[in-house]
Amino acid sequence: MNPEIFSTIILLGSFLIMIFLRFPIAYAVGLSTVFCLLSQGQALVTLPQQMVKGVWSYSLMAVPFFITMGVLMGSGGISDKLIALANALVGWMRGGLAMVNIVASYFFGGISGSASADTASLGSILIPMMVNEGYDDDFSIAVTITSSCEGLLVPPSHNMVIYATTAGGISVGSLFLAGYLPGALLAACLMIGSYIISVKRNYPKGAPFSLKGFIKQLGTSIWALAAVIIVVFGVVGGVFTATESAAIAVIYSLIVSVFVYKGLNWKGVWKALDQCVETLAIVLILISTSSAFGYCLTTLHVPSMAANLITSISNNPIIIAILLNLILLILGMIMDMAPIILIATPILLPVAQSIGIDPIQFGIMVVLNCGIGLLTPPVGAVLFIGCAVGKRPMEKVVKETLPFYACMILALLLITFIPDISLFIPKVLGGYTTTAVGVLGML
After folding, report:
1. Is the pTM above the cut of 0.90?
2. CA angle (17, 23, 27) in 5-degree steps
3. Are residues 13 and 158 in the same domain?
4. Domain containing residue 66
C-alpha cells in the first residue's frame, strides 16, 4: 500500500474511531496526529512545534477578548434589556413571544457570539415566560435553540476569527460585515415558520406596537448595542485592528456591566473571568492540536485528494455546493464547531473556490452549517442545553424542531446560491472586492 494512503487511513481512521468512542475532541485530534507521525517515521517533536505554530498568531489574540466580552455582557444584566427591546419591536404579532425570542437572539448574538450562551441566558427567561403565556414547552425550546444560531453569524464572533485565521488572508472586518444579512435572513425564515405555527395553534398576541415605547427601550438598550458598533465599524473603518477592537470592547463591556446596568459586582467580574479562562483553555487547545492535525493533512495531500474525490462525483457546481453543505452538516452532527472550522476549511475551501464561491461567503456557509450541527444529536450541545433549561426530553424537542430545521436549511441554500446575501454589505461598506462568480454563475 502507498505510504501516504496508509498514513491517511491511520490519521482519519483513528480520529473517527475516537470520536465515536466519545473521546474529548482535543484528545482525539492530538492522538490521531501522534499515530500519523509515528506511521510516517517523523519525530514526535513535530507535534509541539505545530501546536505552538497554530496559536502563534496576532489575529488569534482577538479570540480571548471576544470571549471575555461575551461573558461580561451576558452576565451583566443585558438579557432583560434586549428582551424588552425585542418585545417593543415585534411583540405585537401573533405568536409575539416567539418573535421576541428570535429578535432578541439577533441582538444578543451581537454581544455574546455564542449559541450556547444565548440559549442558557435568554432561554432561562423566555422559555418559562412562553409556557406561562400558553405556548407549548417543546415549541418554546425549539424556537430558543434554533434562533440562538443567529448569534454565530452576527458579529463579533470568535468563530469567525478562527475561520479567518484558518482560511488565510481573509479580512476579519469583511467577514464580520458579511454576517449581518445572513443572520437577518435566518431570523426572517424562523419568524415565518413561527408565525405559521402560531396561527395554526392560535398562540397569543402581545400588546399593540408603540413607537414611544420602542424608542424608550432603544434608549435603554443602546449601551449594549454600542459594543457591537465599536467592534465592527472600528475594524471596518480602519480605526483599529480586530484584536485592538476586541480589547477595547472588553473594557467597554466591563464599564457597562458594572457601572451602567449594574448587573455585575466585582465578585461577579472575577467569576466571569474564571469562566472565560475555562472556555479559552478549551478553544486554544483545540486550535493548537488542530494545527498539528492540519499539518499532517497537508503533508499527506488530503485536501487535493478530497477535492478530486468530490469533483469526480459530479462536475455540476450546484451538486458540488450541495455536497459541501452535506459534508459540513454531517461533521456538525459528530463534532464541535471550532474543530470543524479548523480541520474542514483547508480541505473544502479550495473546492468551494473552484466552483465560484467566495471565501467570505464560504465562511458564512461553514458557520451556519456548524450552527445547525449544534442542534442535532448525537453531539448537539445547544440542543442539550435547551432541553436542560426547559426540562423536556430530547426526542420530543427534536420532533418539534423539525419545521425549524427546514427553515434553517432554506436560509442555508439561499446563502449558498445567492452570494450577495453575504457579500453585499462588505462590498458597500468595507470596499471588499472579489473575483468569485457564484455557483450559478459557473453554469
Report:
1. no
2. 100
3. no
4. 45-442
> How many domains does the chain fold into?
2
Quick one: 40 and 76 in the same domain? Answer: no
- Joined together, the cell numbers standing for residue 86 give 425585542
pLDDT at res. 298: 77
Q: Look up residue 275 and give its amino acid.
A: Q
Query: Among 241, 257, 273, which residue's Cα sits nearest to residue 67?
Result: 273
* Euclidean distance between CA atoms 164 and 28, whole angstroms: 24
User: Is the domain of 31 the same as that of 137?
Assistant: no
Within this chain, do residues 95 and 64 fall inside the same structural domain, yes or no? Answer: yes
Residue 368 burial (10 A CB sphere; 0-12, 13-18, 19+): buried
**320 and 246 part of one domain:** yes
Indicate whether 150 and 22 sit together in one domain.
Answer: no
Q: How much is the average pLDDT of 279-287?
A: 77
CB 186 within 8 A of CB 413: no
Is residue 62 within 8 A of residue 75, CB to CB? The reply is: no
Under a CB-based contact definition with an 8 Å cutoff, are residues 373 and 337 in contact?
Answer: yes
Quickly list H helices, 314-393: 317-334, 337-354, 359-373, 381-390
